[in-house]
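@channel sequence for tomorrow's demo:
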Amino acid sequence: MKLALIIGAGASIPFVPSLTSSFLTKELRRWDNWTGIISRVPSAINVSKRDIRRIVRGILSQTRKETNFEHIIEIIDKVCGYYTNNKKSLFNKEVNIIRRSNKDKGGSRNCYAIIPFLAREIIADAISSSLKNGLDSELLTKQGEFIKFLVSKSNNVSIISFNYDYVLDRTQNAINSKDYPSPSFCNGFTKEASDGYELDLEKLTKASNSIVFPHGSILFNHKYNGRRLIYNSSYDEAEADRWRSLKESYPPKQTSVGQHGVNTIDFNTFIVSGQTKETTMKNAPFNRLYQKAVDDIYKSDAIVIIGYSFHDEHINSVLSYYTETRKGHKVIVVDKQEINDAVDGPLSPLMDVLSTNIQVNGNSDKKGTFRINNYDQLVKNKEGWISEKVYYYDKGYDEFLKEYEQVINKIMNL
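structure tokens (generated this afternoon):
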């Protein structure tokens, strides 16, 4: 039996309660953070820090207060990509923002090219600062025990993490500190190099138990225009290496040919952010990480999904196809929401992706025949079936770590 464990942002909340989308948005908007990060731009790059400040102020001033950090980064990428690419862009709806915020007042191509990198460094620094306050060792051990339990039930476990943080790395360290051996997982970074560990895709593909990060990590460094992806176990070393790399390979971006031969600029080099991540999934090496994740999902007999928001279309399409075509599958979704209305509320995106055959108490807004006739009981118990194959656990990941064995054995009959 093959199992897949999908980890989203909600899985990190028990470890670092402050690490929310709202927190990262505030950090990305804080001008002090921009001032500090811009001051670190090496003089060797020969860009105007004054121009960078002016451009960033212009962009931020034109984004709505309720806009989250991923949407802000998407806007930054598109505006900067427009100028970096000699004003050739496939994204016309951002033209008004470009005109209002910049008005074509100078600023070199290299000046625009570095801003997306700086935005990602602000996000990485915010995550790292939150983690440096310390991770609950008991929770780390519980997560390690949970992963060890999955391995005991299957000789083929794939962990697919969409998080930028290093909670999983520290989980492995916590388990290794015990008297029993840690489950052997391969993250693909097995080639030791002078600047860290380089990605070995062949070993990752062949690994029985694997961990893959399709959206990158704050421990990554993307070097020489994608020819190398480096992993460092230390955030400080990874960060320092990224800044050193600016002098070796500038600007920090990838280029792929889009529609009508127009080059699409992709600034996702070490973490993949923005609301449209599909372009990055076409470029090496993230395309290979994504393919590995897709392949593991399709081949799984059962999937446990923890803290995933169901807002990434390139992942949703994979999960939707899986639930529609994979016979005999079982899915457990671990979440923590205030369930009020399953059709229009928190369950809505989940149901759209995983359970196309649901009706809630006979509600005809959803297609199919399966009905949550015991919906009130689901709300009361904070867990229950929402389709024939999908089980919803709404008590949160911290509670799940206390009773995962009973839940998984009951639902999946492992």
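heads up for whoever presents: The CA atoms of residues 361 and 373 lie 5 Å apart.
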